[in-house]
Each structure stands twice: as C-alpha cells, then as structure tokens.
Amino acid sequence: MRDSVVMIAQPYRFYVERKDVSKNMARFYAMSIELTLFGEILLTRRWGRIGSRGQRLAHTFTTETEAVALFLNLLCQKRKRGYRPTGLQARDRSFYR
C-alpha cells in the first residue's frame, strides 16, 4: 500500500475531429487523464469514425508527469495530422462518462 496520496493537479481532456469530404473521412480522437481506484494515473485514448464507438486504449502511469508527457506528445501529433477542436460539447461529455 502506498504511503502518499496521489492526486491529479487538473483535469486533462481533449477531443478533436478530422474531416475530408473528398476522401469520405470523418474521424475523431479523444483523450483524458484520470486517477484509478488503485491510485495510478490512467490516460485513456479513444478514436474512430465519427458516430461509431471507435477503439479504446488505456495507459497507466505512476506519476502525472509521465502521463502528461504522452498526452502532450499525442496532442501535437494529432494537430500536425489535421485534427481540429470542435464546438460539440455533447459528444465531448459522452466520452468521459
């Protein structure tokens, strides 16, 4: 059992979309960082075609710094590939439920 309590300094949530009608492309990518019941830091990634459930991948870390480093790295990669934020808050909220 751990002696110290782990807490996340702030919520980390990210949702972007990439659309290209000429290629019939409509994709989403979402990430969040949360604390697990076991005190680990969990970075959850979800991606796929807009309107689908998509795929999910989770990474666990012992420190928030490690999780945030991957979060920021992936965020930069997605922005370079043309993913952009949207104003669709309902979809954003449903990812984190």
TrEMBL record:
The family database entries (SMART domains) matched by this protein are listed as: WGR
**Keyword field contains DNA-binding:** yes
Please name the Pfam families in this protein's record. WGR
Do you know which InterPro entries this protein is assigned to? WGR_dom_sf, WGR_domain, YehF/YfeS-like_WGR
Q: Name one GO molecular function term.
A: DNA binding
| Gene3D superfamilies documented for this protein | WGR domain
Which superkingdom heads the taxonomic lineage of this protein's source?
A: Bacteria
CDD domains, per the entry: WGR_MMR_like
What name has this protein been given in UniProt?
Answer: WGR domain-containing protein, predicted DNA-binding domain in MolR
Keywords of this entry: DNA-binding
TM regions (residue ranges): none
The protein's organism comes out as Bradyrhizobium brasilense
Sequence ranges assigned to domain WGR in this UniProt record:
1-97
